[in-house]
Structure formats: C-alpha cells, structure tokens
Design a protein that fits this description.
Two copies of one chain form a homodimer.
Chain A (H helix, E strand, L loop, with lengths): L2 E4 L8 H10 L4 E3 L10 H9 L13 E4 L2 E4 L1 H11 L7 H25 L12 H29 L14 H16 L1 H7 L4 H12 L1 H7 L22
Parallel strand pairs in A: 1-2
Antiparallel strand pairs in A: 1-3, 3-4
Helix pairs in contact in A: 1-3, 1-6, 3-4, 4-5, 4-6, 6-7, 6-8
C-alpha cells in the first residue's frame, strides 16, 4: 500500500517526524505537496484536502496521512498508527503506550521550541515579537530545555534493555523523533547545544546512531530531506542562541 | 480494578479531562493526591511518584494514571487507554484514531489557553508577564479561539451520526472533554464567550447535554469537582476578557 503524506512542501516542520519514520521503514509513500502542481501536488493539493467540505472527519491541520482511504492527523497520532505497520513500535500494548507517551512529550517540546520565535502569535512575523521571543527563550534555555533533555536522557539511562534505544531493544519512531529533536536544536541553538550536550551523552549517541542507519543516511543525503530554514520549527536566529 | 489518578489536588487542570471520563463511566478510582497526607495522599504522594528513581518508564509530568501496575502519562494517552475500557470510545480502530485525533486537538487548544496568562514562562507569575499576556490574548481571541471553536462545531455538524456527539452516535471521552473546554472558556472569558456562543449552537448543546448526564451532574454537584480558580488552566482575569 502506498501512503500519502500531506504537509507543507518547503519546511521540515512537524511533518518531518512522519517522513523520518516512513524513510527508516523503507515505506512506499508519496509526499504529495512536494510533487509539481501539474502532477496534482504543491500547496494547492494540501489546501484542497484541508478545505474539502465533503470530509466527514476533517483534519484540523497538517500533517495528514492518507492510508487505505482513511485520513489521520496529529503527528503523534500518525506515528501511533504507523508504528506497528512499519515495525517501528513495540508489539505489546504497554510498549506502544510508552512509545506514544514519549512522542507526546516530544510534541510538547516541539511546541515550546516553536514558541521561542513565536511566543505571541503564530500569525505574526518573528520580527513583530522579537522582544517577547528573547524573554521567552531566556527562560526556555534556563529551565525548560534542560528539563526536557534531562528527562529524555534519563529515559535512555533507565531503559531496562539498555541506552541504545528510547523504547526497548529495537529502533522505533521515538528514536527517529529524538534524532530530529537533537538535529533541530543543534541547527537552531548551536552555542547552547554545545554547552548542553556534554551532560546528555546517551542522547548524542542516539542521534549519531540514527543518522548512521543506512536508510536514514541515504534520506539525509537525498533531495527529499529539506534543509533546515527560517520558516520551520527549528530556526537559527543568533540573537536567541545565548 | 481500581484506577489511581495522580494529579495536583487543588486545580482542575489537565487532570480534569481524566476525572470527567472516570466519573462518566462510574469507574472505581482514587484521586490519590486529594486523600489526606496521613492516608498516603496530598502533594507529597504525587511528588514521590514523579521523583521515584526506581521507575523504568518515568512520566514527565502529571496527570499520571496507574492501572494494573502500569503508569500512563499524557492526558490524551490516558484517555486513549481508558476509552475502550470505560466504553467511552468507538470499538473500531478508525473511530478510536478519530477520537484520539480530536482529543489531541483539545490538548493543543488547552495549551494555548494556558498561554493566555503565561505566554513567556510557566515558572513566572502572571503578574510578571501581564503585558505579554494581553498581547497574546488579543490574537488568541481574534484568530485562534474562533478557529478552534469553528473546527469543533464543524466536526459536530459533519458527524454522519448526527450532531449530538463528537464521535459517532454515542458518548465518548471527547464529549466530556468538549464540555470541559466550553465550561472553562465560559469561566475564563465570559464576555468573549457570550459573543462567540451564538455561532456555535451545537457545541453549546453538547456542553448542556454532558452537564445533564446523571453521573456528570452528580459529579459537578459533589465536592469531588474542584471549583475553577486562578491556579489552573482556565483563569478569569477580567483584563484579558475583551
């Protein structure tokens, strides 16, 4: 079966967590809005889906996955659905709930990262909320980010199967998500991360091992991987990296 | 089986979405931190759980549900787990995914409501971020809240089984969650809600029908229902209600 992913075509954003899972599994998928408009792609294809008044179960926002005619939205929900199908989640319920719980905590962190540059309104430009962004980010760096990273490091440290994976003894979508978090934080806040990484060796090792997995390495080297930029979640504004 | 809920004992907060589902189902549960400290309750009981270094799968934050020795955190994840067990979710996978998707969108809205009074830092007092709160809330009222409420109204309107429930033709935890959202918004922003409600008749009717369900009505009239207050998610600051 071919999965269809609907997400903004010019950013990694929240869709990247889905892309990484699909890529790690070698799944057959099409990133619809990255197709040319002439082939039914582009932003118009995404907007047609979001504005489709015939949908009985309408999504609120992208990413949206189409699988066997069913539409699934909310990043963590998509990964919950894909996990067993892509063999990227534990087979038992307890393990699946745990993986999902961690992914929802990633979701929370990602929202807070977004708010470092958009603390007042997602509909305004960064430049219109720069003063508030500086104040927000100072607290984020001092309290929130260390708390999240300390937590995820602790999850690796306490994993009864060892610190190589977030969940159990095998790769899961939580591993690819943590890779993305570390990669994004390094892009956005290189100075801060240089300081924080020493205290989180297991997270850094996980990032490196995911990056080296053959399918992920091939993906990262391909044109399918959109570069980080200042329209996505992880943005590099040097004035915030302190 | 007796469920144990671990959550802050003096606020509704995120835990209230779990309490409402347990109450609607007439489930056997104990709200641990609301027990007296002498009976193993109070905030110390909650902190003991959160700080327990022996936990292999540690939660990041409350609410946490203990069920059959398993700990589950993240509000929407707890409801995903409880849904089929409490007969408050559809029996089929598509329906369960849809219910969870809606609950995750409630989660997003709840975070944005929280940020109306804490846009800069959850660790600072409201009074320390009042100017930013006013600016944030102005955008929230103008753009975000109408978008969320319009979406949820549309979900009711398009429900193939009719507009009485968020999901299918039976009560689910999404109904009790929407009740809580409307009740909380009315408490926090009575003037704004008075203006918005006319355009969302199905949501108002859903709120009323959930409030009238026998177990919910009994719960709301009991001392188990904590009153809204200015320590929770939904806070009434008149200067923000414009």
């Amino acid at each position: 079966m071919r999965y269809e992913l609907y997400y903004w075509p010019a950013i990694q954003g929240r869709g990247e967590f889905v892309r990484l899972a699909l890529e790690e599994a070698g799944a057959d998928y099409v990133d619809v809005a990255r197709l040319p408009e002439g082939e039914g792609g582009g932003v118009p294809a995404l907007l047609r889906l979001l504005d489709d008044s015939a949908l009985a179960l309408p999504p609120y926002a992208p990413p949206v996955l189409k699988a066997d005619g069913t539409l699934i939205a909310q990043t963590a929900n998509i990964l919950l659905f894909l996990g067993p199908r892509l063999a990227l989640a534990p087979p038992d319920e307890t393990g699946r709930i745990w993986a999902h719980q961690l992914q929802l905590t990633v979701t929370d962190l990602v929202k807070e990262v977004h708010d470092t540059h958009h603390p007042i309104a997602s509909g305004l430009y960064y430049e219109e909320q720069k003063a508030e962004a500086k104040r927000y980010t100072a607290d984020f760096m001092a309290r929130r980010l260390p708390k999240y990273l300390g937590y995820f490091e602790r999850v690796l440290e306490r994993n009864p199967a060892g610190p190589l994976h977030m969940v159990g003894s095998a790769a899961s979508y939580v591993d690819t998500s943590m890779f993305q978090v570390i990669a994004g934080l390094r892009y956005a806040f290189p100075l801060v991360m240089k300081r924080l990484e020493a205290a989180h060796p297991r997270l850094v090792a996980l990032h490196d091992s995911v990056a080296a997995r053959p399918r992920i390495a091939a993906y990262l080297a391909s044109p399918r991987r959109i570069a980080f930029n200042e329209q996505g979640i992880f943005r590099h504004y040097p004035e915030l990296d302190a």
